Amino acid sequence: MPTNTNRTELRDFLRSRRARVSPEDVGIPATVRRRTPGLRREEVAQLAGVGITWYTWLEQGRPINVSSQVLDAVARTLILDAAECDHLYRLAEVPQPPVISDPPTELPGHLDTVLEALDPLPAMLVDARTDVLRWNRAYAALHPALVSAPPGKRNTLWQLFAAPEGQPRIVNRDEQAPEAVAGFRYRYSQNAGDPRWQDFVARLRTASPLFSRLWATHDVAPPHLCDKRYDITGIGEVSLRATSMELTDHPGVRLVVQTPADRRSRDNFDRLLRRATHL
């Protein structure tokens, strides 16, 4: 039976997905007088082969028992993709999802050696909540305000939506923002009962109206990395391509390395490193 937190998330997620599906998508003839966006609850119940009362209770977040067979039928009716299906099952706790543990307080020193060896490429260690745990000299040169921020704001998602003064402007933020939030929700559903995750989301929704609006869409997708284009004062534009590797010995911790995407970016980033060295 889902927890109170997951029931709220499950309710809002189902409502948002139902509103997204048009009657025509599932073979229902459109009518002129239709006040409900997307499908009606009774239509979802009928198409999924479940009782209208049961589905209504599910969408209202009531504490009812849910089977994988019924969730499969609801997912097909709402035309959920693989990531959305996984998100639905995690919220319904069918089966009980694995929880990604927080990384240990102290990471072994040899990881610092790895980060240093990657210099002059910006590299960092980041956890599932996108908190930046360790970094090298090149990453600090690119993100001086981020690495000096307090732990609660030393976070790549916070940087994207509520960057502190002194951070380089992300030129393609509008392109990245929806994907970043959908990927973060994918991980959030695995940790929705953790007060630290809930607090982070609440603080970021307060700090960023854009994040709050995107979070309310309940979109979910497998996390993936994409190029970031920075506009650095006195340097110009730098486009960096990210590569991510999970650390086998530390579940939830990833090594992320950024490489210049083109010659101009490489030249501009070299200028940034020289400037940082002389500060």
TrEMBL record:
Span of domain MmyB-like transcription regulator ligand binding: 110-271
Record-linked SUPFAM superfamilies: lambda repressor-like DNA-binding domains
Record-linked InterPro entries: Cro/C1-type_HTH, Lambda_DNA-bd_dom_sf, MLTR_LBD
PANTHER family: BLL4672 PROTEIN, BLL4672 PROTEIN-RELATED
Protein name, UniProt field: Helix-turn-helix transcriptional regulator
Species in which this protein is naturally found: Streptomyces anthocyanicus
